[in-house]
Amino acid sequence: MNSMSITQHIPPQAKVDSLEESWIKSAQQDLSAFEKLYDANYEAIFRYAYQRMDSKDDAADVTAQVFLKAMTNIKKYKFMGLKFSSWLYRIAKSETYQFLKNKSKSPTINVETESLANMAQDIDVPIALGNEELIAALSELNDQELELVEMRYFEQRNFKEIGEILDMTENNSKVKTHRVIKKLQNKQK
Amino acid sequence: MKRNINIDRKPLAKEEINATKDFRSLASKVGIAGSVSPKPTGKSTGWFAGGIAAIAIAAGIYVGTKTDSEQLVQEPETLIAEVTDTVSKTIFVNPPIPEADISNESYYVDADNGGKIKHHTGTEITIPEGAFMDEEGNIITGKVEVQYREFHNQTEILLSGIPMDYDSAGKEQVFESAGMMEIRGYQDGKRLKIVPDKNFRICMHSKNPDPKFNLYYLDEEKEEWSYEGKDSIDNPKTEQGSIKDEPIEENIAKVIDKEEAQTEIADAEEVVAVIKKEIKTLKKESPRKPLKANPKKKNFTIDVKKTEFPELVVYAGTIFEVVDKSDLPEDTYSVTWNGVELLEKNNSYIVQLKKGERKEEIKVIPVLDGKDYDEAKKEFDSSFTDYSKKLTAKKEEEKQAEVNLSKIKERYKKEQEAYERRVAIMRSKMEFQAAARDELKRIFNINRFGTWNCDSPIPYPKGMLVLTNYEDEETGETIEFTKLDLVEKTRNACFPLDASRIGRLPFNPKRDNLLWGITLDGMIAVADTEDFKEIEKGQEAHTFKMKVVDIKGKTTSEIREIIGG
Description:
The complex is a heterodimer.
Chain A lengths: L17 H12 L4 H18 L4 H17 L11 H19 L5 E4 L1 H11 L3 H13 L3 H12 L4 H8 L3 H19 L1
Helix pairs in contact in A: 1-2, 2-3, 2-4, 3-4, 4-8, 5-6, 7-9, 8-9
Chain B lengths: L3 E4 L6 H5 L4 H7 L21 H14 L11 H7 L1 H7 L14 E6 L4 E4 L5 E4 L4 E2 L9 E9 L2 H7 L4 E4 L2 E17 L2 E2 L1 E2 L5 E6 L8 E6 L4 E6 L2 E3 L13 H8 L2 H27 L14 E2 L18 E4 L16 E7 L2 E8 L2 E10 L2 H70 L1 E6 L3 E10 L4 E9 L8 E8 L4 E4 L2 H4 L1 E4 L5 E7 L4 E4 L1 H5 L7 E9 L6 H8 L2
Parallel strand pairs in B: 22-28
Antiparallel strand pairs in B: 2-6, 3-4, 4-11, 5-10, 6-8, 7-8, 8-9, 8-21, 11-20, 12-13, 12-21, 14-20, 15-16, 16-19, 17-18, 18-19, 22-25, 23-24, 23-26, 26-27, 27-28
Helix pairs in contact in B: 7-9, 8-9
C-alpha cells in the first residue's frame, strides 16, 4: 500500500510580497501583529467603502467591520496567489452591501469628471455631450456591472486585480468590462 | 435600483482618513491587548465578534473531552494560560458544537502482541505487535488505549470541526469524503506514536465504492491535508445497479390496498345476508297447500278472525278436522259449550272448548271439503307456481352472491399471497444490500496517528453568485455568524464560507443546497433547499430567511437532526 507524503508547494506565479507574507504569518501566530497589515491597508479599504457611500462615518464603520472580520479570519487566509489586499476588498464588498442593506440606504456612485472622460473615450462618445446621459446610464447598470466600471475607470485597477476582488479570472473581468462598455455604447446611440 | 450620485465630490485627504483609524479598539474587540474576552461580545461587534475567544473556549472544551468519559469545563483564562500550545494546535480543529461532536470509542490493546479492533460500524483495525512508541521513540509495552472515531456524512463532518478545505496548485477546493476517521494511541494519558514500518491496517467501513477517492492525512502542524496515495476497495458482489433502498411500505400500496379489499368483501357478504333474509321472509309467506277433509273424521266449523289467523282465511270454507278422535271427550256433542276458541300452540291448531271451569283442548288441522277444496286447490296451484318461481329466483340470486363473495375472497387471497411473496423477496434483497453495504470497506495502511480521510477534492460550486443577507425568519433580525457552511445534500461535502464568501454566496442551483451556521448567540441557523429554490436565475441579491434554533438542552441526536436539514 502506498504511503507517500506530498507537501503542497506555492506555485511560482503566486509569489506575494515577502514583507507582507511575513506580516501575515506573524499575525496568524499572534493577532497583535495584525496592526502592520491594518496600517498598510486601511486607507485603501476606507477609500473603497467611501467610494460607494455618502458618509465618511459610514465608510469608517464599514472599514472597521472589514478589519474585524479579517482579523478573526486571518488564520484562514492562505497564500494561493490571491493578494492580501484583494482578500480584504472581497470582504469590503460584502460588508458594504450588508451595511447599506441594514441601514436601508441607497448605494452611491461617486463620479469624477476626469474618470468620466476616460470612460467616454472608450465608449466613443463626445465628452461634452455625454456626461449627463453617461451618468444616467451608469445608474441603470446592475451591481456587478457598476462594480466593474468603478474599479476600472474610477479606481484605475487593472483587470488582474479586478478579477481577484470579484473572484473571476483576469480574462473574464476583461470580457465582462468590455460588455458593460458595449452596453453603455448602445445606450448612447 | 435607486442610487445616489455625487459628481466631483471633494476627495478626502489621507490625514482625514487616518484620523478614523483605531486599532486598539479593534484589538480589544477580538480579545488581544492584554485581556481575553470569555464570550462573544454581541452583534454590534460584527460577524466573527469574539470569534477568537469563542474558538479558544471551544478548543479548550474539545481538548477536555477528547477522552470519551467526563466533560471538562475550565475557565477560559485559565485554559489559555495552561494549554496555550494545545490551543494553538487544536484551534485548527474547531468543533462548532462540542456537545454534539462525534465521541471517541476507546479500545485496549496489548502493545507487545498487537491485536485487531472491530468498530461498531464494521471497521477493522489490525495492529501489529510492538507498534507503539512514546514521543521520544521508546517502544511501549503493556496495555495501551486506542481512541477511534469515524465520520461518514455531512452532519458528522460539520460537527467535527475538522477543516475540509484543500489547496491544490493554488486552487481552493474542499474535500468530498468517502469516509474519514481519527485514531490516536495513549498510555497513562500520554500520547503515543506508531513505530516506523509498523503500519496499522485499516479496513474502514464506507458507503461509497467510487475509486475516484484518494487517501489524505491531516497534518496538524502544518494545518493542511497531505496526499497519501490511493486506498483499495473491498466491495462484496451486489446486484446490478446501485445499492438503493426500496421501502417496503411503498410496494405494499402497489400490490394491495387492504382497506379496499376489506370493504369489497364486507359489501359482498352483506349482499348474501340480505338475500338470505329475503328468502326466509318469502318462505314464511309460502302458500299453504289445502288439505282435503277426511269424511271419516270429525270436524269443527269455526269463524276465524282474519287478524288472528290470516293464513287460515286464504281459502274460503276452511273447517277444522280432529287429528285424533281419542282427543275428543265422549260428551263433546252432548254438552252445550260456553266458548269455542281456536288457538295455536307448538305449531299446531287447537280447538278449545269451555264450559264453566271445564276446558277441553282438541288438536285439529284446517281442511277443506267439496267445492271449497277444489277452489282452494286451484288457487293454491296458481299461487304456489308464482311462489316457486320467486323462491327459485331468490335462491339463484343467493347462489350468485355467494359465488361472487367467494371470488372476491379468492382474488384478495391470491393478491395477499403475491404481496407476501414480494415482501419476502424485497426483504431478502434489502438485507442482502444492507449487508453488502455494511461490508464495503476502504482499505489502507497508516503510519501515524491522527485524522485520515478518503477524499476527492472538489472546487467551490459555480452556477450562481448572489449577494446575500441572512435574517431570522421569525424576528426578521439580521443574523451574524461565527461559522457558516454551504452543504450540497447529495455529496459528502461542506463548503465553509469565510468572510469573503459569506456575503457573496457561490452555489450550484442544480443541486440540493443547504446553509448551516452558528450564530453569535450560539444558536443554529439553517436555510434549506426550498430557500435556495426561491432564488431566480440572474438574481443578484437574496436574503435568506433562516430557521434559528436554540440548542441548549437538546440531545446530541436532536442537534444532529436539526443540522441534517
